Amino acid sequence: MQKISLLLIMAFTAITALKAQTKPGPAEKKLTDSICNCVNQVNVSSIKTTEAANAAIMDCFTKYTSILMEIAEERKIEFTNDDAMSQIGTDIGKNLLKQNCSNFIKLSVISNKQDESASNNTSGSTTGTFKRMENKGFNYIVLLDADSKERTFLWLRQFAGSENLSNRPASYAGKKVKINWKEIEVYLPQAKGYYKVKEITAVDIL
Description:
The chain is of the alpha+beta class. It is built from seven helices and five strands. The chain has a five-stranded antiparallel β-sheet.
């Protein structure tokens, strides 16, 4: 009987500890509230595409990177651990849904819908001389085309050739490159509006 009682106490303690782990920590709660306040300031009626909805949410996430690092410390994970950091993003999304964050729910619905204008999306490639990289909230690659005009392309996510470029950006300077791109609509914080930009899908040195 004493053994059974001891096992029950141990089991109860384990369950209590598990529940305590799933409860958001102070930094996680702070980030959830901050992102909810941020997205609730977005004019959702102006957002029509999946890309624009995703960009609006991501813009709010990137504003609070410092709090994200606090959560990593709370959970004792490395900021470079992509899987663990991705799980934080998933958990924040769940928190926002649980607290019924109005605009986050609306943006999520738009984000999960098939983009009706997808058939109108254009893609292509541009060849030119690699001139420089710029950081305007996002990274951009600037090429000089055959007419000596500057062409700007958005580096939004990983693409074919991005690892080489991030490791050795200086080695691309002045070289002939080909950029494959697709046109998307994103929210640009500096311009405070949604604009069509050319997102990089691949970069090759010629």
